[in-house]
């Protein structure tokens, strides 16, 4: 390692390009040729942007961020680019939001899988830490919310400081960033310093409005349940009626249902940002400050963000350039008050037979109890780099040092009034850090006027460290002391009961060493052929398979310059293609260790008991699963073909990409080794393919001479997901309530087919072989039970009769926008759509399955205050016998599967550029820009889905009723530069 580090310090390699601020455009534009003479407001600086293999003119188009009061980069990018799917499962400010580029390459069974499927975020060349490490889920009973602040790290990015965003979807584009980029790359370029002195001020203020809701009280719920009792209930079942509904004179549940007065409220959103730039062509700077406040419309949620940035560019001598950049933020998040999350964190189940009251006077009493609680969630982020470039003739050296650091803390205290007189406190602190050293050397060799070869070699080292400390405890004796105080001598607890305090800590390290080489051959101005070879060694792989070698080739043919140079209709036409292999990064270091020992003395309700009969010990990972030797790298194999075209002097521009991307040799926990006590064994051999097409079109509908400009843009992605193979040559495997079957998609639901209801016992089919009735796993079906389809004809309904159907992710997704401008006035409409997506309405299934939910006192029995809110149409469902042993309202049937395609008008905006007006009106004014605007966001949604907003679903495709609503927001703003 010391030798590699020594080489890394002296292999200074790179290139110098000009950093220049340019306004974002919705049109894909050609890359401009770098000139040697700087413009008055620019400075020659060294930028840490790795050259990609693809040399297409428009394949690296910038994404224009809309005028949208987004709280995170994820939210700002939603519906802006073909092939990018952003899942916003809650409108709560600052919560996790996940992105997928061209679908998912692995089945999403857990929150850890979700993190593993995320693209790499690169900010000014820094591969930043964009997600908290999922290893903390190992000590949790539920993965509803990660311990700690659980704040979206991408919410820490100062969006006002972003100059452009690029989506790298092709392997020829993202392979230079190595295995961490196997899910694609989102490249963010921030604004840099300029020689011209300038002060900028950007701000907006808005009001977020909750959507109107219909509430109900105990009378409505009683009427809903009476139809089941009147039809099916026995006398004993009638006597066991829900206690909270028995007394119709009880105003706790039969009084006014006005809880929304405290739960939903109009909320303010605002942003204030200021920056200053100045300097000379030899050195310049940019300094920025920002404050963003985003208040949620439900449950008194909030996110406050403070951001600061500093950029310094220097050119002390002609052959040397240097750039330094620092971006930091602090986020303070006020979370929701879900009972589920509170109980999951506390690991204690109280009596759940009595739900929260819909009466605001009584519900307000619980909110008063929350005033005694403490829930402080703080997150800090720091990203920075120093980059130096040296140029000696045709040889260019570059050395880059980057740092990405985040930390988060949560101090939680729930008083005795919230948990059956039992106080609960927990404290969490965790951090993630990444150090990157990247060195490159570039040499350009001109054979003759028609032939040129550019060579590049590089070496990089990445050090990743993740750690957290977590402790929780019960019973402190008083609500006046809300922290877990320790004695200064022995560090033992002085307030909370010692035997009821539990501590956890974990640390994982992931180091990576890489070497790569690249060559670009150019023939005239119409042919380019490129090749990349890289070697990556990662500590999270086993010693016998530590290294992986990735080759990538690409080619580009400019048909316009070659064959159509005199054609006036075709402005640009290019054909390009690529093929490559790239190793996939492994987050968890468990797989590098082979057979191992873990803490696993517990049981299904509490798996993390560290001792047996008072003796601390370690055992084999019987619950987590067996890990063997000789685990190979998983890797991507991608092939793509693309067309870039521009017609009629750029009035119509388009990009078409066809792709096939397969993730091979992935690990999967398969049932096995039960004879040794294991629940599963991790084995390689799972291959998942994503194939499809991306389409981007931009057109100017009116002639250039027309004073009115009308530009439309369309983005679309069609993606087909297919499971190609499973470990050990299996054709299918059952994991939980999911089925993976070769030849089908990994995001499909596995459900029973529902064909109605048996109205009488004689309607149930009879097996002619033994005269037995059709049964569900041995229980005969009868009147009031569902008509589930017996697919295999054995007269027994079970897992063999389930069918793969629907998709958890959209098959087609994209965006459509219109921009109309007249002189200095602009009007814009941005639409966003998903097609071919389905939702399993678990919330509706829970509403009907009230008997089973209330008879089992577990985490699924919890009723939030939103239980008293109408969702969907209950009249469209059959009235089954809710006491039947077959559980007729089980969620895993197509009765609750719905089409969740939608079209959403995400933003309508109106803007006016007042720069010229102000400069004419005030002669001494020196205003570079003064732009005012107003927007309406989340205007409307068209969807056949009968439930809530079709975006509010979790990664499994279930609508559980959780997730705060995405509000309609009205904003006014100004962008000013002096």
UniProtKB/TrEMBL annotation:
The keyword Transmembrane helix does not apply. Gene3D superfamilies: TonB-dependent receptor, beta-barrel domain, TonB-dependent receptor, plug domain. Residues 19-40 are annotated as: Disordered. The keyword Membrane applies. Residues 68-185 form the TonB-dependent receptor plug domain. Its main location: membrane. It is found in: Cell outer membrane. Keywords: Cell outer membrane, Membrane, Signal. One of its GO terms (cellular component) is cell outer membrane. Residues 1-19 form the signal peptide. Pfam families: Plug. NCBIfam families: OMP_RagA_SusC. This is SusC/RagA family TonB-linked outer membrane protein. It comes from Pedobacter hiemivivus.
């Amino acid at each position: 390692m010391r030798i590699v580090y020594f080489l890394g310090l002296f292999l200074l390699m790179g290139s110098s390009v000009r950093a220049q601020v340019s306004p974002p455009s919705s049109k894909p534009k050609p890359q401009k040729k770098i000139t040697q003479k700087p413009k008055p407001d620019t400075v020659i600086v060294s930028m840490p942007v790795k050259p990609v293999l693809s040399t297409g003119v428009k394949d690296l188009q910038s994404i224009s961020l809309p005028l949208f009061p987004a709280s995170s980069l994820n939210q700002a990018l939603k519906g802006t680019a073909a092939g990018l799917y952003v899942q916003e499962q809650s409108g709560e400010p600052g919560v996790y939001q996940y992105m997928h580029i061209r679908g998912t390459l692995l089945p999403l069974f857990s929150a850890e899988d979700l993190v593993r499927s995320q693209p790499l975020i690169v900010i000014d060349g820094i591969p930043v830490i964009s997600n908290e490490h999922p290893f903390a889920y190992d000590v949790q009973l539920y993965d509803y919310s990660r311990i700690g602040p659980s704040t979206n790290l991408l919410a820490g990015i100062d969006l006002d400081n972003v100059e452009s965003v690029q989506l790298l979807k092709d392997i020829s584009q993202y392979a230079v960033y190595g295995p961490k980029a196997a899910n694609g790359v989102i490249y963010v370029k921030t604004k840099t310093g300029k020689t011209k002195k300038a002060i900028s001020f950007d701000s907006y203020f808005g009001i977020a409005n909750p959507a109107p809701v219909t509430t109900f009280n105990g009378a409505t719920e009683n009427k809903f349940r009476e139809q089941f009792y009147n039809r099916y209930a026995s006398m004993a079942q009638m006597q066991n009626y829900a206690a909270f509904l028995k007394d119709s004179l009880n105003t706790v549940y039969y009084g006014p249902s006005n809880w929304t007065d405290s739960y939903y409220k109009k909320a303010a959103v605002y942003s204030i940002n200021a920056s200053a730039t100045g300097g000379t062509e030899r050195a310049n700077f940019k300094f920025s400050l920002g404050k963003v406040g985003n208040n949620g419309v439900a449950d008194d949620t909030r996110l406050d963000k403070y951001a600061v940035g500093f950029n310094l560019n220097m050119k002390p001598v002609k052959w040397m350039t240097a750039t330094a950049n620092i971006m930091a933020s602090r986020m303070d998040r006020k979370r929701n008050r879900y009972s589920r999350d509170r109980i999951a964190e506390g690991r204690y189940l109280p009596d759940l037979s009595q739900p929260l009251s819909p009466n605001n006077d009584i519900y307000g009493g619980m909110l008063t109890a929350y005033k005694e609680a403490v829930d402080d969630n703080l997150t800090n982020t720091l990203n920075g780099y120093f980059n130096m470039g040296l140029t000696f003739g045709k040889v260019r050296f570059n050395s880059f040092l980057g740092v990405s650091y985040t930390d988060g803390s949560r101090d939680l205290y729930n008083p005795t009034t919230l948990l059956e007189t039992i106080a609960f406190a927990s404290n969490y602190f965790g951090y993630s850090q990444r150090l990157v050293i990247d060195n490159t050397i570039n040499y350009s060799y001109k054979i003759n006027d028609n032939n040129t070869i550019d060579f590049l070699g590089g070496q990089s080292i990445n050090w990743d460290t993740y750690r957290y400390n977590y402790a929780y405890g019960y019973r402190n004796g008083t609500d006046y002391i809300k922290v877990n105080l320790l004695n200064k001598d022995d560090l033992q607890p002085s307030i909370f009961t010692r035997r009821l305090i539990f501590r956890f800590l974990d640390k994982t390290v992931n180091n990576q060493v890489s070497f790569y080489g690249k060559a670009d051959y150019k023939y005239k101005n119409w042919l380019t052929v490129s090749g990349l070879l890289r070697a990556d060694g990662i500590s999270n792989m086993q010693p016998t398979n530590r290294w992986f070698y990735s080759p990538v080739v690409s080619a580009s043919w400019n048909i316009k310059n070659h064959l159509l140079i005199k054609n006036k209709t075709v402005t640009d036409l290019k054909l390009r293609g690529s093929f490559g292999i790239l190793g996939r990064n492994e987050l968890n270091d468990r797989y590098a260790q082979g057979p191992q020992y873990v803490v696993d003395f517990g049981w299904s309700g509490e798996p993390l008991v560290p001792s047996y009969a008072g003796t601390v010990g370690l055992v084999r990972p019987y619950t987590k699963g067996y890990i063997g030797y000789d685990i190979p790298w998983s890797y991507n194999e991608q092939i793509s073909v693309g067309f870039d075209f521009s017609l009629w002097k750029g009035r119509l521009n388009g990009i078409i990409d066809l792709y096939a991307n397969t993730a091979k040799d992935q690990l999967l926990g398969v049932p096995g080794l039960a004879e040794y006590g294991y629940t599963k064994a991790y084995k390689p051999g799972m291959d998942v393919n994503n194939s499809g097409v991306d389409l981007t079109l931009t057109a100017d509908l009116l002639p250039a001479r027309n004073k009115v400009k009308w530009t439309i843009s369309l983005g679309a992605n069609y993606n087909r997901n297919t499971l190609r193979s499973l470990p050990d040559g299996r054709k299918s495997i059952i994991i939980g309530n999911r089925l993976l079957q070769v030849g089908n998609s990994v995001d499909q639901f596995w459900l029973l087919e529902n064909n109605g209801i048996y109205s009488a016992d004689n309607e149930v089919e009879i097996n002619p072989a033994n005269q037995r009735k059709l049964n569900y796993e041995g229980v005969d079906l009868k009147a009031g039970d569902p008509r589930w389809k017996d697919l295999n004809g054995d007269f027994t309904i079970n897992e063999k009769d389930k069918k793969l159907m629907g998709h958890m992710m959209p098959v087609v997704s994209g965006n459509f926008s219109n921009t109309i401008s007249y002189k200095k006035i602009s009007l814009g409409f941005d639409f966003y759509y998903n097609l071919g997506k389905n939702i399993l309405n678990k919330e509706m299934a829970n509403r009907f399955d009230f008997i089973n939910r209330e008879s089992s006192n577990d985490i699924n029995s919890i009723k939030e205050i939103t239980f008293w809110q109408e969702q969907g149409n209950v009249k469209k469902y059959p009235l089954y016998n809710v006491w039947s042993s077959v559980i007729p309202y089980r969620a895993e049937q197509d009765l609750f599967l719905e089409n969740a395609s939608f079209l959403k008008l995400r933003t309508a905006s109106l803007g006016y550029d007042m720069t010229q007006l102000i400069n004419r009106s005030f002669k001494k004014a020196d205003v570079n820009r003064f732009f005012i605007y107003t927007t309406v966001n989340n205007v409307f949604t068209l969807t056949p889905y009968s439930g809530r907003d079709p975006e509010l679903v979790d990664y499994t495709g279930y609508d559980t009723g959780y997730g705060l609503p995405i509000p309609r927001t009205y904003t006014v703003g100004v962008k000013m530069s002096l």
